[in-house]
Design brief:
Double Stranded RNA Binding Domain, alpha+beta, elongated, 3 helices, Pep_chain_release_fac_I, Pep_chain_release_fac_I_sf, ribosome binding, 36% helix, three-stranded antiparallel β-sheet
């Protein structure tokens, strides 16, 4: 069972964990032992509350397919159990991040001093450019 928050948990049957061979440079066991993990989680079939499902399906993340399947590949560690825990932790973080409410931007206006500094900078730049021109009457 994976605890997402105090009130939300995922049952073991909702998460499929499949051992696979890790990619990358070889070593003593890399070509023989399946220590990496593919975690699959179907958002639509899960027991998550509707709010969580809606937010997860709206997230633009390469780990979430159009069909609503989350696929996480964990191969950072040397043991299967550590990679399994890493994949579960990444799934938990993904769900928590999707459920976090979006902070609204409060529109602000620049202060009078900021507007004056901007105008002074524009005037200074204009003077520099004017000095680059050929003096009048030198034709």
């Amino acid at each position: 069972m994976l605890r997402i928050s105090n009130s939300v948990t995922l049952a073991d049957w909702e998460i499929q964990i499949q051992p696979i061979r890790a990619q990358g440079a070889g070593g003593q066991n890399v070509n023989k032992v399946a220590t990496a993990v593919h975690l699959r989680f179907d958002i639509r079939r899960s027991t998550l509350p509707a709010y969580y499902k809606q937010r997860l399906l709206a997230v633009s993340d390469h780990r979430i397919s159009k069909e609503g399947m989350v696929v996480i590949k964990a191969q950072q560690y040397r043991t299967l159990e550590q990679n399994r825990q890493d994949a579960l932790e990444r799934l938990r973080a993904l769900i928590r991040e999707a459920a976090r409410p979006v902070r609204r931007r409060r529109p602000t206006q620049p202060t009078r001093a900021a507007r004056q500094r901007r105008m002074e900078g524009k005037k200074r730049r204009g003077r520099v450019k004017r000095l680059r021109n050929r003096p009048a009457g030198d034709d």
